[in-house]
Amino acid sequence: RTTMKSLRFISAEAFVSNAEFARKSLGAVAHDLFPLLFKASYLLEQGEVIHDLVENWPLFDFNMGKLLGATLDCQEDLSHRTCSVCLESCLTGLRDYVLNQSSPYMKKLKVVDLTGIKDVEVQFCKCKKTMGRWARTQLLSKLCSELLIYLQQAQCNPGTFEISINVLIDLFVTERNYELVVQALLKKCSCPLKICCVAFRSDNLTLQKFFYIIKLTDPSLLRKLEIVHNVHLEMEHLEMLFNSIHFPVLMSLTLPARTFNVRRFTATDEQMLTNIGEKMGEMSQLTELSMSFSILTGRIQNLLSPLKTPLKMLDVSNCSLNHADMAFLANSSHASHLEALDLSGHDIPELYPSTFFKLLSHCSSVLRSLTLEDCNIQDIHVNMLILGLSPCQKLQEFKFIGNPLSSQALKHLFTFLCELPMLKNVEFPVPRDCYPVGITYPIDDASLCRFDHQKYERVAEELNLILLQANREDVKASTPLFGSYDAAVQETNNELGAYLIKSFKETLEKFTTSFNKMS
After folding, report:
1. Which domains does the chain have, with CATH numbers?
2. Furthest-apart CA atoms within the chain: distance in Å
3. Element (H, E) at 67
4. For residue 490, what is the enclosing H or E element?
5. Is the CB of residue 13 less than 8 Å from the CB of residue 40?
6. Is 272 a residue whose pLDDT tops 80?
7. Rounded to an integer, what is the distance from CA 445 to the centroid of its chain?
8. How far apart are CA 472 and CA 290, in angstroms?
9. pLDDT digits over 340-380, tens only?
10. Angle at 484 between CA 175 and CA 82, to 5 degrees
11. Which of 18, 72, 218, 487 is the most exposed place for a label (fewest CB within 10 A)?
């Protein structure tokens, strides 16, 4: 892959390629060249040079997203390279910036922003070893704690204690790194590196630990909150969270599966739901909401009507929405602002075809991502779907795996998809005719892989040929049978798996005990 580079950048690459020479010469380098040298070092994975650049950083701020993003000198965006060598060198360099006592009065650095780093599936760095969000959380917390211990024990220059650097980061906390992160947050006031949590994700945490750590993060700074796997947050806990903590700048909220279940609602629960809706209404910047795998039949209006700002992203996949819910969405102020919409797990053609297409027409001018997995979209619905998608000229991503479509219908659909100018990513189902006759949808996990793989490969080739002939090599088409890539799950899948086995074992033991008592 060739990327445009300026003569300045090529010179910077040549300079940092000799690590020993570059490190010795940094003292003679003009301050305004540090960002250029940092990106060149990152591209060439020169860990030692990265460390020394950060240790001697002469500027007021250090913004990873801007430093690694596309620039006039080098158009390649490196912010999706979570190279372990580079990131570890960067963070240890930050620690040593504080400890370097050569000239503390010259230290200008006030803000370090690590939030621009993007975790992606395919890495292009040579070392092929990544440092994901969880590992970055772990390392920064560890370095903050070690730094504080060292400063308390060593004879440091008094100027060192005057250093105060806000480190903006997206924290990812699980049971395994919980204690370390808590210690770093508790000692934030004393530590020169001050963790400022801008986004927070928690998996595999007890409610007690979640409530404790979320208060330590300083919720007044929190822009994104994700409570995902194995945090047993139910509606009463959510109400408690919103009543006890204020989130003035929260823009994005993800709630775990089964937070809501209207099938067992009482009058008290109805009031609780109303209260939660009102509390979300007070979050004036909230524009992204994910509530998948909750049962929200007939209650979408209760939650969304109090919101003062129209939503740009809504995930209500597998939420058992009824016609009233879909009608509310189609007619609400949110509809014309939705850039990302996930309605997976709803039988759209059977339950509310016209209302869905009304919603689609209202958001068509801004819609960038549409997910309709397991929606019972069949061959007879493809022409209608094409009609509905035609105005969506800004669509970049369309995911529709799990639908009973034949290879012929997929070819017809792909021919149309070539016409969407902004489209970049398509996730399509295994064609129905690749499965045994009589397969029922949605397909259970046990039967998911039992299809004619050779026939599927042939169809996939034909679909890619359609893209190729339309000069749409820029579109990536794939069939992720077990869901899209999730960097956070990928990074912590061992812990997640161990937790699930433990839960299953405990359930089995309880069942056995109960059964023995009955016997």
Report:
1. 7-131 (no CATH), 199-482 (3.80.10.10)
2. 83
3. helix 64-68
4. helix 487-518
5. yes
6. yes
7. 25
8. 31
9. 999 999 999 999 999 999 999 999 999 999 999 999 999 99
10. 60
11. 72
CB 104 within 8 A of CB 61: no
pLDDT tens digits along 36-80 = 999 999 999 999 999 999 999 999 999 999 999 999 999 999 999
Alpha helices in 266-423 (DSSP H): 267-281, 300-304, 323-331, 348-351, 353-363, 382-389, 407-417
- Work out the average pLDDT over 251-272: 94
**Alpha-carbon distance 156 to 140, whole Å?**
21
| Tens of pLDDT, residues 377-404 | 999 999 999 999 999 999 999 999 999 9
Query: Cβ distance 289 to 253 under 8 Å?
Result: yes
Angle in degrees, CA 199, 71, 95, rounded to 5: 50
CA 249 to chain centre: 18
Distance (Å, whole) CA 517 – CA 112: 59
Q: DSSP for 31-68?
A: GGGHHHHHHHHHHTT-HHHHHHHHHT--SSEEEHHHHH
Element (H, E) at 262: none
Residue 164, Cβ neighbours under 10 Å: how many?
A: 13
Cα separation, 512 vs 39, in Å, equals 59
Query: What is the rounded distance in angstroms from the CA atom of residue 100 to the CA atom of residue 160?
Result: 9
Please choose, from the candidates 101, 49, 47, 39, the residue with its C-alpha nearest in 3D space to the C-alpha of residue 71: 39
Is residue 329 pLDDT above 60, yes or no? Answer: yes
Residue 200 structure tokens: 């927070």
Tokens read off for 372: 């309709």
Express each pLDDT in 181-223 by its tens digit. 999 999 999 999 999 999 999 999 999 999 999 999 999 999 9
pLDDT at 104: 47
Please give the C-alpha separations between residue 23 and each of 20, 38, 56, 313, 437, in angstroms, as whole numbers. 5, 12, 11, 46, 67
| Alpha helix (H) residue ranges in 154-292 | 178-186, 207-216, 235-244, 267-281
Give the C-alpha separation, 261 to 335, whole Å.
Answer: 24
- Alpha carbons 90 and 314: distance in angstroms, whole number: 36
Helix residue spans in 418-486 (DSSP H)? 453-469
The residues pairing with 200 across neighbouring beta strands, listed in sequence order, are 171, 225
pLDDT in tens, 82-117: 999 999 999 999 999 999 877 544 889 999 999 999
Q: Which amino acid is located at 486 in the chain? A: D
Cα–Cα distance measured from residue 57 to residue 165, given in angstroms and rounded to the nearest whole number: 12
Sign of CA dihedral 338, 339, 342, 347: positive
